[in-house]
Amino acid sequence: MLKMTHLSKVYRTEVVETYALRDFNIDVKEGEFVAVTGPSGSGKTTFLTIAGLLETFTGGEYHLDGIEVSNLNDNARSKIRNEKIGFIFQAFNLIPDLNVFDNVEVPLRYRGMKAPERKQRIMDALERVGLASRYKHYPAELSGGQQQRVAIARALAGSPRLLLADEPTGNLDTQMARGVLELLEEIHRDGATIVMVTHDPELAARAQRNVHIIDGQVVDLSVDPRFHAAHHAASEAHG
Amino acid sequence: MNLPIRPILVALRRHKAGTVLIALQIALTLAIVCNALFIIHARLANLSEASGVDEPNVFVIKNQWAAERPTAQVDAQVQADLLALRQLPAVRDAAPASGYPLQGGGWDNLVTLTPDQTHPITDSAVYTSDEHFIDTLGARLVAGRNFRPDEVMVMGTQQSITPPTVIVTRALADKLFPGGHALGKSFYAMGTTPSTIVGIVDPLHRQGVSQWNKAYAGQALIWPLRADDARGIFYIVRAKPGQLAAAMREAPKALYAQSRMRIIDPKDGVQDYAAIRHKVYDSDRGMAILMGIICAVLLAITAAGIVGLTSFWVGQRRKQIGVRRALGARQRDILAYFLTENFLISAAGVLLGVVLAVAFNLWTVTRFELDRMSLAYVGVGVLVLLLLGQGATFAPALRASRVSPVEATRSV
Ligand SMILES: Nc1ncnc2c1ncn2[C@@H]1O[C@H](COP(=O)(O)OP(=O)(O)OP(=O)(O)O)[C@@H](O)[C@H]1O
Ligand SMILES: [Mg+2]
Asked: Which of B5, B323, B337 to mutate to test the interface with A (most CBs of A within 10 A)?
């Protein structure tokens, strides 16, 4: 589903070059639920933005669903984002000017879907996250957990095969976090591939596989001595 | 492209202040620009009004007398002057006159069909001259005949003479005698004796071009009179084709050779019709330019307002643009979003503007007796403002479309 080989990402400013990712290798199979952990600044978000075609990379190769994506133009990348990928962000990123219904509708409109089908999918997705009755509410009128569930509904409505989540529970209390995770697990059971960045070892433990990133590289925890320090720091950061 | 009109309107509801302000600005600009365009067009149309004069070859000498003399002496001098002018090799004809078309203002009389009629039928500009007037101006006699030399009368400074014959413009003839049988009919022009129409010219402009004159456009009469006026007399001179400059040079010399008891202002004592026309339409041209400047300034301000507001909104919505891109919006979807948004605001503004424009015009119609504005001006105004809106939105919208999708992951 998602395969990166020797991938690198360099951020260049006038004064410094930062290797956010270097010789980065990962292979996520169709239908996997992968949790990505690692210390702050290690490159987790960078990995996710490249995986989600939000950003280009500097070197190496990235095959998404069998397609080498580095040659795709912006329109093609937009189309893949729209049809194959669902995003869930730490900050929910709902559009404040639109109500729940209209927020969930956004990606469907970009797909050029007809109104009746859009409506069907929106209500189905909202049903699934338990917010169908709130479809007229504005984001500001919802709790954080509810907003994140709307964001999940928005990601779900387009039936993406790949769901990318960057600390989806980072802004939520334990109770709400648990609800969101259960939702993700349910979506996973229905066949979606999920890659989730998290600081929370407890959540990470519930994924099928854990990938750890340190200094822009995937490390094997069982052999890498840096793991213990990093893991410790991450747990501490999260209390 | 799937234009998300309903969500755009919904989102705009949450940005009421900016939306309403810009829509109002567009409405007011439209109202003013339509009316200004209408005025500009009317004023510019004035500039090319036909005078009935062979303008490329005709010039006017303003001849002032240096001393007062009895009428008989003045008239003898006038006749001698005219003879001298007509003998110049570059001159085709010359005529005395109390005034001339496009002079700016001058003699006019109220006109009645009976001597005791209390309500005048209309107003007519009055020209007095001799049998050379029509040929000198290059005017077209379309019916009847010219004056005979023996019909030309002489009027002293204190006298008021109404000649029994008159030549009128077609406009005046039609106004007095609708149906086209004016020849041979008589009318009164503020006197107790009638004048009989012996000829009809068409067209011949009045002296004035003001709004007031417009109501009586083209209505003028010519009396066969050499009037002695203490202030002086106009000599209208028609040069032979292509010899205007030579004629204008020679004419004052010829007059001074006749007698030095006169003043011809070296600056504007001799004016060709280009100068006359330029001067008389000064205010029309000035008004057109002023209105043009007002339009340009208003449009610029409105455009700046739209650019400003759109830029502000683009800045404010960077994050949501990133999110939209992350969710699959192409660059052109983002561009279309902002252009559509502007179009919706502009459409509302323009709708209100049309109402305001027409209302304002109707008010000027009743208040200042201006003309009704053709809806074509409103159409042009609407088009201009819609295009302006799209144009002004384009640059900020393009910037918006270049917001990277990665913007969605950046924390605020
Ligand atoms: N736009 C950017 N320009 C320059 N450097 C960047 C940019 N984005 C990220 N970086 C750098 O790349 C490295 C990886 O950042 P990234 O955001 O991927 O870390 P992260 O693992 O997601 O951290 P966190 O757990 O704090 O979210 C960091 O050193 C960061 O400073
Ligand atoms: Mg991060």
From this structure: B323
Q: Looking at this protein, which amino acid is placed at residue B154?
A: V
**Is residue B256 domain-shared with residue B289, that is, in the same domain?**
no
Give the nearest ligand 1 atom to A48 CA. Answer: 18
Statement to judge: residues B351 and B393 lie in one domain? yes
User: How far, in whole angstroms, is CA B79 from its chain's centroid?
Assistant: 37
Tell me phi and psi for residue B129, to 5 degrees: -165, -165
Cβ neighbourhood burial of A112 (10 Å; 0-12, 13-18, 19+): exposed
Q: Indicate whether B289 and B233 sit together in one domain.
A: no
What integer is the mean pLDDT of B140-168?
93
Which tokens sit at B397? Answer: 């919208």
Count of C-beta atoms within a 10 Å radius of residue A230 = 21
Instruction: Answer yes or no: is B97 within a domain.
Output: yes
Domain count, chain B: 2
Cβ neighbours of A106 in B, within 8 Å:
7, 323-324, 327
Give me the DSSP letters along B90-126.
TEEEEEEES--TTSSS--EEEEBSSTT-SS--EEEEE
Q: What is the pTM of this model?
A: 0.81
Contact of A56 with chain B, judged by CB distance below 8 Å, is answered with no
ipTM (interface predicted TM): 0.91
Is B399 found in the same domain as B296? yes
A41 lines ligand 1 (CB under 6 A): yes
Give the Cβ contact number of residue B17 at 10 Å. Answer: 7
B11 to chain A, any CB pair closer than 8 A? The answer is yes
Angle, in degrees to the nearest 10, between helices B375-401 and B282-316: 30
- The backbone torsions φ and ψ at residue B390, rounded to the nearest 5 degrees and listed phi first, read -65, -40
* Neighbour tally for B50: CB within 10 Å: 12
Phi-psi region of A167 (alpha: psi -120 to 50; beta: other; left: phi over 0): left
Distances (CA, A) of B73 to A91, B63, B155: 104, 15, 12
CB-CB contact of B168 with B222 (8 Å): yes
In a domain? residue B57: no
Both tokens of B1, joined, read: 């492209």
Domain that holds residue B135: 68-260
In 10 A of CB B304, how many CB atoms?
11
Ligand 2 centre from A187 Cα, in Å? Answer: 23
**Which candidate in B2, B3, B325, B409 is best for mutational testing of the A interface (most A CBs within 10 A)?**
B409
Whether B306 and B362 share a structural domain: yes
Place of tokens 């001067």: B279
B230 vs B8: CA distance, rounded Å: 77
Give the model confidence (pLDDT) of B338-384 as tens digits: 999 999 999 999 999 999 999 999 998 888 777 888 899 999 999 99
pLDDT band at B46 (very low <50, low <70, confident <90, very high): confident
Judgement on whether residues B42 and B73 belong to the same structural domain of the protein: no
Q: Which helix (H) or strand (E) holds A181?
A: helix A174-189
- Kindly give the number of the ligand 1 atom that is closest to the alpha carbon of B406: 1
Query: Does residue A198's CB lie within 6 angstroms of at least one atom of ligand 1?
Result: no
Do both B362 and B329 map to the same domain? yes
